[in-house]
Amino acid sequence: MTEPVIHNPVGAAQAARLPEKARSQWRDVWDQFRTHKGALTGLGFFVFILLAVIVGPLLWDIDPKYIDIRARNSGPSLAHPFGTDQLGRDTLARMIAGGRTSVSVGLMAMALSLVLGTFIGVLAGYFRRLDGLFMRFTDLFLALPLLPLLLVIILLFRDALRSAFGPEAGIFILIVGVIGITSWMQTARIVRGDVLALKEREFVLAARSIGTPSRRMITRHILPNVMSPIMVSATLGIANAIITESALSFLGLGFPSDFPTWGRLLFDSTDYLQQYPERVMWPGLAISLTVLSVNYIGDGLRDALDPRIRGR
Amino acid sequence: MSTPRKLVEVRDLKMHFPIRGGLLRRIVGAVKAVDGVTFDILEGETLGLVGESGCGKSTCGRALLRLYEVSGGSILIEGADIAEASPEELRRMRPKMQMVFQDPQASLNPRMTVARIIGEPLLEHTSLSKAEREERVYELMDQVGLNRAFANRYPDAFSGGQRQRIGIARALALNPRFIVCDEPIAALDVSIQAQVVNLLEDLQDKLGLTYLFISHDLSMVRHIADRVAVMYLGKIVELAPREPLYSAPLHPYTQALLSAVPDPDPAIAARRQRTILTGDVPSPANPPKGCNFCTRCPQVMDICRSVDPEFREVAPGRFAACHLLDDTVSASGHGPGRGAQDQKTNQQGSMT
Fold this sequence. Notes:
Chain A has helices at residues 9-13, 25-34, 37-59, 91-126, 128-143, 146-165, 167-181, 185-199, 202-210, 214-222, 227-250, 262-270, 278-305.
């Protein structure tokens, strides 16, 4: 059966060429990603932030909770490059410690809401029977008044989680969970819409005519094609999670007041906005730049994952 | 040649899509896309299925592979009923029947390489190792005339004709007996159409395939099909071997359809008298009472508006659904004993 057929204009003309070596898809993705200047800069900055919050405490070993009341409200100096706050705590050390919490809350909460949102969205879009139920459930969550809900959740679970995982880990799990389960709805809606449209495409019909079962249909044909909206949701989700965490800390529902996060630092500094404006700048800048870099990474990744854009 | 075996037997196939309306989304009606279709496909033959846009050709083809849940009727492929099969049985029957789709752009997943697309059926239905699968994919690419070097490219890197070849290779992967070609050439350039059709014919000769070839291109169907079925508004109005159908169509709709085929010779084209149908195809959600074609038929009679003509064998091997071919009716009513040939000339004389 291997002899060439008669009507073989393409093969006949170029039969001498050897098959191209199978290239790893991730190599192609990386090659395309590298051509996106913004994404590359974003990735660089994000890696820098990650290194700073992970390795930073080893290099800058001032305890962020150490109160040096005589050095309070000092401006930038060699001893305190970012200055100190009203209690004389070193701002750089607090920025590093706060970044660790903020970035991990952002990443974890984003991951949680993404998994939830994609799961609900794909199931609702793919299985018609689940659509009504899941989408009304989504509407229900969208309609819930967020702040009272958060208050109730935190009051109900704070003490239990604290005693189970320790005060900081407990609050961390609580915050991530609370942000995750209150922010998946947009993702679910966008993903559902895309899945509904994809489901009618002929390649899905073709896969069905082959006999591909639903679970593999979703992982092989649906999910890779809804990557773009998921990617966009993910990058916006990190920003959203960092900001929500700040708001929660500000309301006293988040981490304890002596536990630094970028949001906490920002809100603490607003009291001194007129006397020491630079103190607002550091956490503000850190939040904005992190969010911006993640958005650029998402943008580049979305382009790199799309074979239609790749290579041009 | 001995009497060929019937590979596919379709009996009274119905495919109705519900129309929902009102606040509670109740079912208020149905689009009768395919409404009682009966035909057989013999082993090794090509059955052409023609008709205008929206007459239910594609739906019929897809229902045949149970890509839709059929509303009624039975589909037997090698004696096994597709319409009633459980999902697990259906999955086991899939390798026997495959489909080539109309739009080669839309029928290939843009995020999979050619090798993965062609290899997907193998992955689902065989236990070949990775290397064996790769070998089979290359073999298939040779068969459809694709360069092996392109195995790791994505579909967007190919032209329409090449994409259609990928689609054909995927359909061939499991050595099917029966392939539904759903307008495989409609989205291609004329020069590429010939290539793809010739490829399909070559493959049929070599692999003994059976095709249901859905198309609205009458000339192409004449070229490739052994028998032709003409569909109008969800029903088959005429089914006959190719030559008799093209030389002496029985049903008024087939006559009108054939008279719409352009003739390359301007002298003949100028002398030709065409049957031009007036009006539009009625909505399949609300088909007319009686014969579906009665609103546009140039030879409509009273009985056509009240009684649905039966689809029956009017001459050996030729099936049609028309009251004009009904001896009792034509004897009692309009112009006794009009044969098919006279009918055609009469009609063309009266239509200018």
